[in-house]
Predict the 3D structure of the following.
Amino acid sequence: MKALRIHDRDRRFAASRLGSVLGSPNARGRGPLSLDTSAFQQAPTTEWQELKVMLSGICGSDLALIEGRASAYFDPWVTMPFIPGHEILARTAEGHRVVIDPVLGHQCRGLPVPDDVSAPADGHDYSHMVGGQIEPGIQTGFCCSAGGGWAERMWAHPSQMHSVPESFSDEQAVLIEPVAGAVHAALIALRSRDEAPLLSVIGLGTIGISTVAALRHFRPDARIVAAGRYPHQLEAARQVGADVVTRFDGLARALRRLTGTAMIGPDTGGGADSTLDCVGSGDTLRTSIGTTRPRGRVVAVGMPAEVTVDLAPLWHRETELVGAYTYGTEDVAGVRRHSFEHAIDVISSFPSPWLLSATYPLNRHRDALAHAATAGRRGAFKIAFDLREEN
Amino acid sequence: MTPDRFQLQRVLGTTERAVRFAMKPLAGRGFPLRAPTTPRGVIVPDQPDTLGAAYDTEWARRPVATISRSLIVNGPLRLAIGVLTRPRVSGLDRLSALENGDDTMPVVFAANHESHLDTAILIHAIPRCWRRELVVAAAADYFFDRRWKAASASLALNAVPIDRHQTGRRSAETFRGLLDDGYSILIYPEGGRSPDGWAQEFRGGAAYLAQRAGAPIIPIYLEGSGAIWGKGARRFVPGRTQVVFGEPIMPDADMSSRKVAARLGSDVARLADEATSSWWEATQRFASGTTPSLSGPETTSWRRSWALHDRRRRTKSGRPRPRPEWPQLS
Amino acid sequence: MPRPGFVLDVDRSTPPMLFWHGERFSLERLPADRSRVIYPAEPHPGLRDVRAEIRRAIAEPLDSEPLAELLNPDMKLTICFDDVSLSLPKMRRPDVRQLIVEAVLTEAAAAGVDDVHIIAALGLHRRMHDHELRHVLGDRVVDSFASSGHLYQHDAEDPDNLTVIGTTDHGEVVEINRRVAESDLVVYANVNQVAMDGGWKSLVTGVASYRCLSHHHNPQSLENTRSLMDRHHSALHHSIWRMGSVLRDHGPRVFQIETTINTDAFPSPFDFLSKREWEWTARDRASYLATSKSLDRTPTRISRRIFHSIKAPYAVTGVNAGFTETVHERTLAEVYRQHVVEVEGQTDILTMGIPFICPYNPDSVMNPILVMCMGLGYMFNMYRGRPLVREGGVIIMTHPTYREFDPAHHPSYIDFFDEVLADTTDPHEMSMKWERKYAEDEWYRHLYRTQNAYHGVHPFYAWYWGAHGRAWASRVIIVGGHPDTVRRLGFTPASTMTDAFELASDVVGTRPTITHLHVPSVLVADVR
């Protein structure tokens, strides 16, 4: 079986860290990723089923890991060597299409499931992630026993599988996982926000656009300001329902115009009720805090690494800074559903195929990763590996 | 300060000893290496007096002298004055109607006088179109009593001797000739530096000269030079000065020179008021006739210096006053 | 003897013409036998002794008692003066306003007046910086009055200091600065650089409120202002004159002192800018080459600083004082004498080079809205009778039009560009939909009152200024401008003059007639 695998070789990681400063290292073929053909590994437990991968997306967290930019926090949560890829559309042995919730929760690991947990990423204690019948690993795509999406075949536990509606095309289906993450983040941002909230979204890649769409889906009354960098992103944000679309440097002024507040230095006196930072750099987090109203909420959606942020504004404005990790069971108006189900609703309501900008076969992984790393500049959103011919 | 003074004396002493030692071979020699002695019974005729008011300064206006003066004056002297006295010049716009590039007519600058620095400060402040050909009227009995003093004053400052006790016809003719040749004149109508910081009465000499030559008089008020290095001061303390130019007094054949002198005095008093308070207050006081006199209150000496201290405190000129110290808190 | 302005018919031996291009220049060749260039008159000589002339004018005023007779010790005297939007470029010190104010204050001191306020009549313009006040009024006046709070700048957003003095018969409310309204005598020190200014406009706009200004600063009035330089055919000036009658009948006594200046705008080494191209000496050509080559290599920031530090050697050509209306007629006669050029007929295309400065960006950036204001507002309006270009013709301007704004002086312009122009470029629509929001925004109000920002509504006024030009021409092309920015303004971008003519050809044909306005010196074209 052909698969892309990340091996534990410090030298190659060091090279990729240096290389990521100059641009994507995979374009130079010096990264830690290698394409190999090997035997399909053993099933982790008997419950796990074999799937044939159809499409598998490339996410910012994968790129961060490959380029050596991922936080050291994840070191105990990831086991090498593993096959990356957690945005997976696959076909079961019976021929049904499924998308995978890659979080390796209690059920996958054969551990008893606590009462408050129904989806793998729920709960108040993550200890199970390093226990049970499989190796430690937060998700499929980061665990040496669980396999991953950038391969021809993979194993999945039934609790991870969600069926895809017949009406969905393959290109729509592979977006369910990232949109589910956006849905989860949007619902965190909307907690206790009652009348016509003013919401601000920074960063308009796949996650940002999905977040704008999710916010619009849940709250048609909200006013949404979206800030991005590239013209195609701004246009997409307008199409999925943002009220005001601006470049990064115009965000503070746009919020000022909408609220009528004053500018104090680079920040606004008032600001948005909730801000979703889908970039996660030091600058965007600082801008988010400075343009959110006092006692507002900043949701860190995009995975940040080690950033330097001045937290004095956070302290002064009593801002709630909260992370949004993947998906889980969402309680919307008393009804409990999985984020993936909401994601399916959101995708149905917007023209999603164009979020999948390009696909590549596995053997062109260097081009694929280079494209994903510079997606914004090249007018793209989501890049995925297409393994349908091989299967 | 004390160690530095002894250092200087030591150096001077060493130099003097070295010169004496070098001069030893000459000690036993006589005429012609040394000056002759006069025999008894011989009457030495009087040399014509070529010093004092009769000193001829024409050589100092020849090209060679002019060039060397511009090297001394325009370069180092202006820089030194700028650093040591930091003059703040105002009122130059009042002269804009007289400035005409190369055709500028010469004028007579009349200023109050507090210190030897005044001339250097004014040379610094006067606009270039007059500064290039400027002559300073210097006291004949002070600057021109020794040959070396006369030569230095003429060369460095383009000074011309003026008899300050009585403006003789010869001085008037000299100055008239200079004005005709296009030289502007800088003169101190008080006749000398102020002894106590307050101005003395303005004599008629400047007005008389300007009237005879038909040149406009520019009144100037100088503040602060007396506090830096006044008459009788032993030390030189760098500080700030202020130069205020007033409205030109145009020549008027009908006005007597005494009237012009009075007008000049009141103009400089008004400029002084402007410098120590504000232009508007000074204008209002001038209109109501209450401009404070330049020569200070007519009282005993300690009250005069008291009032002088008050007045100096109102301006920013003079010596820098010690700043209040911040308390040390740890 | 200064030569009058004239119209040059371009033929094959005509050298290329100088075009302003923001902070740079270009030389463009105009097509022969169908182009003409309007040259302004040479500068008239100035008065020999301005101070004496001012003293004479206030002692022998027109239709008024001499100033000295109007002053008494118990009165409230207010002196208002034109703000930093005049002169352009700023004149060498001493500024004529300094001479006027000092002369008036000398009279006031002689009369024993104590209660004197000096107010910068800036309307909704920005507050002046301290160094600008010192440049205009001189150090003596500023030092005497600023610290006691008697020298200050008009605040149109201070409700406690505004008062209504009356309403015209067209229902226009005349609301002005309270101190001005309640004074016994108001003296106005004016610099009449263009025919638009002076007369009742000085006080009626300079110390008015937003409410009062909106009666004539609106798209309707400005579309019917034909032109800004001709008050008899200008709806703007008709409204202002109506308000002036109210001021005359119900307001304070006004003693207007107006001065005219010649057009000697550029000292050497920039004096080649006002010369006729075929009269450029070798030295002028060398200056032009040196200047344009070095400017091409200089960052815009620095070349902007160089240009804004130019001090014009303007000479004062006349001083008139007394009753506003009589004085203004004399002033206008003098202004037209210097500015008017007789021109026969209109052409299909009007070209003009836009300089680095307009009345609303002294010492600051010329943002895209001000490019439109300068071109379609001021320069298009430099006519009497009929515009230089036919109705439905094409206007071609040259300016880099970069998307750059001064956030300190023009904060509301940035939002106007991002929000309002993205929605509409039609002056009527924006006036109904957006103007009120900008006029009442608290943040802009705060910046106008306490910092040095133009009022929130000011970008709208700058846009309305070009309303007549915008309605008259069927297409406006900007050569050398930043394409997206030019399109946002509603205009067409072109990279070269040839392309511009090509782009104009579907409106005016392939052989249009062209007029080029040879500014920088100001002129007024009397078009028959």
Notes: The mean pLDDT of chain C is 93. The CA atoms of residues 219 and 428 of chain C lie 6 Å apart. The longest strand of chain C covers residues 389-398. Chain C has 21 helices and 20 strands.
